[in-house]
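> @MW can you paste both from yesterday?
MW: sure, first one:
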Amino acid sequence: MKFGTSMSFPLALAGKENYSSYLEKLTYIVDVEGLDSIWFADRTTYPFDIQNLYPEKWGKGKMDVNAQKILEPIASLSFVAALTSRLKLGISVLQLPLRHPVLNAKMITTLDVLSQGRVLFGIGVGWMPEEFENMFVNFKNRGGITNEHLELFKILCLSD
């Protein structure tokens, strides 16, 4: 069995304003304690009114503006990769339809090369219509967009 930790919350909500120092300390602790991986969530934005699936928790007026301070996962993992040579670097879950597929492939393969093959990532289609609106992507087409992106990703990342 393997164990890791997840950075799936906005740092401001954790009371951490000095992000780089906090990530350095967290990475050190995770590495020294023998965990296997560190994971970052992929959120482009947290809409202020997330009403679709979780209205009781995130209904109208219930979103904290500090929630926008969540760090971008690929850039954050690049920072972490420079601090440790052992930890696996995880993205949970990369929302393919919200990002350009060529840029996705380039960024992920670059991180994987520079970290010497330590990248792990899950993919998803996304669940918040409001986030898709914010990114100018059609929520109803997200399944098809994800399939297209997967095919491109295979070509761009897995070919010799």
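MW: second:
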Amino acid sequence: MARDASTTVGEDELVRAARGGDNDARAELVRRYQPPAYGLAVRLLGSREEARDAVQEAFLRAFRQMHSLQGAFGPWFFRILVNLCYDTRRRRRRARVVPLNGEERADDEPDFALRELVRLALARLPERYQTVLLLRDVQGFSTAETAKALGTTEGTARVLLLRARRRLALILEELERSEHR
């Protein structure tokens, strides 16, 4: 597949070509999905290095398992990535390693305090709530794409999102109150 033609090629055609071993098609899928995948992984893992590793591993697994793909590539790929991020977090907890999360700190930015407050609130949410919020509100996934990435139904994804938003709002209120004391 020529690089110039890849910009007009649909996802289904790319997936068919990638299944057939076309490296240009695989490169185009990486080009399309790497930026949002990296953003999601950084938010889930809190570490740019771990995020890069998770995204790379997700693409490797996706390309190895393309024969099992049914439906759209995006939600299926993000499901692989989310599972890898969960596994990384579980391993980190078992090893009792505390991540150094000062990578994004920029005190001179005016909205740093707000971003830090939201980051702290998100960290207090259960993993599933964090993920549904990141997929829908940060990555802009549809309900159907979110459900597929989470391995659940659309109805369950909507309920999870509602509960996650409510819990996040409560945690933010609590953090703001404790900050003003």
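> thanks! The domain at 108-181 is CATH 1.10.10.10 (Arc Repressor Mutant, subunit A).
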